[in-house]
Amino acid sequence: MTGGEIAGLIAASAFAVLVVFIALVLWKISKTVDQVTKTVDEANKTIAVVTSDVDILSRQVEGLLVKSNDLLNDVNQKVATIDPLFQAVADLSDSVSELNHSSKNLVSKIGSAGKATSKAGVVGKVGGAAFRAMRSKK
User: What pTM was estimated for this model as a whole?
Assistant: First the structure.
């Protein structure tokens, strides 16, 4: 064998090894692409299910919001109806407080007058006793 034949044999062997290596790489890439395709298909199915569920939930939430708004309007109307009641209770509370204050002042004045009256009564009794004592000496 000549040097050219040996070089050709080496080149052919290297090319055969390269072809086998490329074939193995392509086979593994093919498997990976198949797995990726399956994963993407599953993801698409899951997205379709989630999208459907989100649509259903959004309709239900919209219905709940409508009902909540109606309920809030009803509560606001009822609160507006009973606001005068609370104002009347507040006014009554002020009136009772003023009556209580006036009653305390009246009791205080009556108490002061009673003390003065009792002092006058004691002085009157002492004076009466003194007057009787002087009259009995005459």
Answer: 0.42
